[in-house]
Amino acid sequence: SAVISQKPSRDICQRGTSLTIQCQVDSQVTMMFWYRQQPGQSLTLIATANQGSEATYESGFVIDKFPISRPNLTFSTLTVSNMSPEDSSIYLCSVEDRGGTDTQYFGPGTRLTVL
Amino acid sequence: GENVEQHPSTLSVQEGDSAVIKCTYSDSASNYFPWYKQELGKGPQLIIDIRSNVGEKKDQRIAVTLNKTAKHFSLHITETQPEDSAVYFCATSEYGNKLVFGAGTILRVKS
Asked: pLDDT averaged over chain A?
């Protein structure tokens, strides 16, 4: 399975500011995903990021709030813009198995607290 | 869209006992069913998965069973150990589409 790292691992931010989360994979992957996990809750898909194309956002998530970059096959960023306390969550990136199956492997997550 | 229900929400077992977590899904087109374990402060870890052409899969103390007719699948952990304590999530997908997760089960193994 792929080895995935995220930066930062955690952060405390003031409302109204923005934070960019980085996701790095140790091998080239086609599909990368960004999820949000609110405190004590399950995982909700924010968007799918394919290299060379615009990210595809799920219902309830918009590009202005969560802009995503995917400059190459091993890296992606998610920005949480104009943050409010409701954005306090764990943000997780995942990658699809190189074999092109549905299997997804997750990074360690970024724990964000907005004051 | 797909809806995945997971039960129970919390489960406490004595060390050495078995634990069973069940999920039901709504979309008959779903054909991939993974289970993830999430420890505190970590990302979800894939522990076992099953595809629709298989009824059961086992990996040491962990097994998953799938009943496509009834649209439910279950995670079975035998001989539980304290390190099995975590949150477990089931998920489903239709090939090439997104994963939809259950609400999660907090498993506590008491020693």
From this structure: 94
Burial class (CB in 10 A: 0-12, 13-18, 19+), B71: middle
Q: Which of A48, A103, A109 sits opposite B43 (nearest CB)?
A: A109
Is B47 an 8 Å CB contact of chain A? no
Write down the pLDDT at residue A102. Answer: 76
Contact B23, B6 (CB under 8 A): yes
Q: What is the residue whose two structure tokens read 């809806």? A: B3
Tens-place pLDDT, residues A15-62: 999 999 999 999 999 889 999 999 999 999 999 998 888 899 999 999
- Cβ within 8 Å, pair A58-B98: yes
User: Which chain A residues are closer than 8 Å to B102 by Cβ?
Assistant: 42
In B1-111, DSSP assigns E strands to 4-7, 10-14, 19-25, 32-38, 45-51, 56-59, 62-67, 72-77, 86-92, 100-101, 105-110
pLDDT bucket at B94, cuts 50 / 70 / 90? confident
- Which tokens belong to B49? 């998965």
Q: For A106, which of B32, B43, B96 is closest by C-beta distance?
A: B43
